[in-house]
């Protein structure tokens, strides 16, 4: 079974996410969109049509989205089969968050690593 197939996104806390995103847009050319982050599109041998995306997004410093982790960041990993991977992680004794979100954006699950960092696992929608 394939596990992680790539990085789906990098998320981090900021005192002023809008101002920080603007700094990255102006000084580093990050293509910040109206929703406050950026979507980098790419192709790969598994995705020759170039519909893959890696998100970059600053979050408010007081966001609860990274909880229970105290880390100021969270990495989103692309996975091939979220439900199978979550089952495997549980059977291996990993700290899997007991929640899965499914929407038009794909399937999302979470695991807490031994360092206390929350990792987001994302199975993109078909074709992405």
Write the layout of secondary structure elements.
Elements: E1 4-14, H1 17-28, E2 38-44, E3 47-60, E4 73-79, H2 82-91, E5 95-96, E6 101-103, E7 106-112, E8 118-123
Parallel strand pairs: 1-3, 4-8
Antiparallel strand pairs: 1-4, 2-3, 5-7, 6-7, 7-8
Domain VOC: 6-124
Organism: Rhodanobacter lycopersici
Protein name: VOC family protein
Detailed description of the structure:
The chain is α+β, with helices and mostly antiparallel strands. It has a single domain, classed as 2,3-Dihydroxybiphenyl 1,2-Dioxygenase, domain 1. The protein contains 2 helices and 8 strands, in the order βαβββαββββ. Strands 1, 2, 3, 4, 5, 6, 7 and 8 form an 8-stranded mixed sheet that branches. A hairpin with a 2-residue loop joins strand 6 and strand 7. The longest helix has 12 residues, at 17-28. The chain is globular.
């Amino acid at each position: 079974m394939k596990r992680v197939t790539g990085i789906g996104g990098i998320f981090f806390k900021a005192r002023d996410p809008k101002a920080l995103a603007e700094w990255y847009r102006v000084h580093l050319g990050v293509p910040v969109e109206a929703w406050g982050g950026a979507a980098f599109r790419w192709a790969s041998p598994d995705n020759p049509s170039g519909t893959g995306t890696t998100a970059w997004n600053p979050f408010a410093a007081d966001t609860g989205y990274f909880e229970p982790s105290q880390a100021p960041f969270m990495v989103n990993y692309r996975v091939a089969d979220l439900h199978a991977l979550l089952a495997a992680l549980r059977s291996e004794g990993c700290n899997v968050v007991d929640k899965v979100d499914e929407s038009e954006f794909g399937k999302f699950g979470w695991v807490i690593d031994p360092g206390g960092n929350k990792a987001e696992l994302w199975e993109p929608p078909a074709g992405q």
